[in-house]
Amino acid sequence: MHPPVIDDLEPALDEAARLLRQALRVAALTGAGVSAESGVPTFRGADGLWEGHRVEEVATPMAFRDNPELVWRFYNQRRERLTAVQPNPGHFALAELEAKHFQDGRFTLVTQNVDGLHRQAGSRRVLELHGNLRRTRCTGCAEIKDRGLEPLGDLPECGQCGELLRPDIVWFHEMLPEDAWEAAAEAAATCELFLVVGTSAVVYPAASLIPAARRSGAKIVEINLAATDASHAADVCLHGPSGVILPELVKRIRDKNQPHRVQRT
Ligand code: BV8
Ligand code: ZN
User: Which single residue of 19, 57, 157, 189 has CA 20 to 30 Å from 254?
Assistant: First the structure.
């Protein structure tokens, strides 16, 4: 017996599974919604505020310049919260697509999330457009270091040069990492199927990958609790929790043998 959320999604799930079976290359863009069922709060869910501040005001170079303690408190709290968080079935389903159904680099996971849960679930080809909460970057010597989730002080300093560390996170008004962005744009331009999972599609340039994929002929499948700014571009919209829908989708391609795949000309 399917959980109720699936029953009325049957036709859309079958259509999405058909598109998945037909694709040679698949790309996925994930946002905070894919981690929601792991207990990680989304950005624009609830009131999208942190200690009364809008994220767009705290996650900026200006906020860090003016009040580094406040910004470090914001990031230390999110790092600390991650110690009690595990990937959910949605993360594992995406990892299975890469490992079992679209090997040899034919599955590219582009994430806006900074929680590291995709890698923790076994995904390997992960493009982190907005950085990672586990890493710090030195404002002096630019050294990037993986700190795991150990607590960092109010104003952590670089072991190399003594300057102030910052989270290795892309803030608003900052450029995305060039190599990750280039690879993400390439994946969107060459895939036959583009999955859009758990994102409100309001943050750019990440959200521009969706129309880019469509323009280059990919089919778009959106998985989200509700309609978003990207829904109009989707060929199939699956409304429900990604932690339930993604495993159902993977189950449908796991159960059927793999008919011939069409490669886009
Ligand atoms: C750039 C790291 C410029 C931080 C993030 C006005 C002022 C300032 C900037 C701008 C502006 N207008 C436009 C901009 C550009 C700005 C932007 O897009 N702003 C938006 C808000 C309008 N973009 C930038 O500043 C980017 N840089 O433009 O540089 C530039 C250009 C040239 C040269 C130099 C500079 C940088 C953007 C990166 C910002 N950093 N993250 C941190 O995490 O602390 S963005 C932040 O938002 C997170 O990464 C997050 O992932 C991302 C997007 O949000 P979502 O992931 O979509 O999360 P959200 O809560 O919105 O939605 C969740 C969805 O999941 C919902 O749809 C919900 O229904 C669904 N859901 C919930 N539960 C489930 C679910 N779905 C399925 N299952 C569930 N269980
Ligand atoms: Zn340094």
Answer: 189
Q: How distant, in Å, are the alpha carbons of 97, 105, 226, 227, 228 from that of 232?
A: 25, 29, 12, 9, 8
Q: CA 224 to CA 239: how far, in whole Å?
A: 5
pLDDT, residue 8, reads 82
Query: Two tokens at 112?
Result: 């806006």
pLDDT above 50 (res 250): yes
Contact of 129 with 184, CB cutoff 8 Å: yes
Quick one: which ligand is closest to 142's CA?
2
Q: How far is the CA of 136 from the centre of ligand 2 (A)?
A: 10
Amino acid at residue number 174: E
> By C-alpha distance, which of 248, 199, 194, 257 is closest to 225?
199
Structural domains of the chain, ranges and CATH numbers in brackets: 1-40+87-130+176-258 (3.40.50.1220), 43-84+132-169 (3.30.1600.10)
- Concerning whether 130 is annotated as a catalytic residue, the answer is yes
- Terminal Cα distance for the chain, rounded: 41
CA–CA dist 167, 150 (Å, integer) = 13
Ligand nearest to the CA of 165: 2
pLDDT at 260: 46
pLDDT tens profile 19-78: 999 999 999 999 999 999 999 988 876 666 667 778 888 999 999 999 999 999 999 999
Would the pLDDT of 166 be above 90? Answer: yes
